[in-house]
Amino acid sequence: MNKLLFWIVVLGVGFLIWKIVSSRARIDPGDAGARRAGAAGRRGRRDRQRAELMIECAQCGVHVPSAEALEADGRSFCCAEHRDAYRRDR
Ligand SMILES: [Zn+2]
């Protein structure tokens, strides 16, 4: 019975350590992760940061990545059709 308790504690501590390590890697991928992965890791981080910046289309309200958004008249659009439609509607 004591042996069973021992293994439950060992598995619990191991699980906690794994959770801490994996959550830390998710929060800060730049440190050990990117250094290990080199340029590919840095590129992946940059892509993810750019993808997180979403801009709302002034015409349809769809959120698009800022890299894909079109800017016109100080507003952002998801595509050229909506940019032209917005200009027509005004
Ligand atoms: Zn749109």
Verbal overview:
The protein has 90 residues and is α+β, with helices and mostly antiparallel strands. It has four helices and four strands, in the order αααββββα. Strands 1-2 form a two-stranded antiparallel ribbon. A two-stranded antiparallel sheet has the order 3-4. It binds zinc ion (ZN). Residues 57, 59-60, 62, 77-79, 82 line the site of zinc ion.
Q: Average pLDDT across residues?
A: 81
Q: Main beta sheet: strand number and arrangement?
A: 2 strands, antiparallel
Structural Rg: 23 Å
What is the element string, with H for helices and E for strands? HHHEEEEH
**What is the overall number of helices?**
4
Portion of residues in helices? Answer: 55-70%
Ligand roster: zinc ion
Main sheet: which strands, in order across? Answer: 1-2
Topology:
Elements: H1 2-27, H2 32-37, H3 39-52, E1 54-56, E2 63-65, E3 70-72, E4 75-77, H4 80-89
Antiparallel strand pairs: 1-2, 3-4
The protein binds zinc ion.
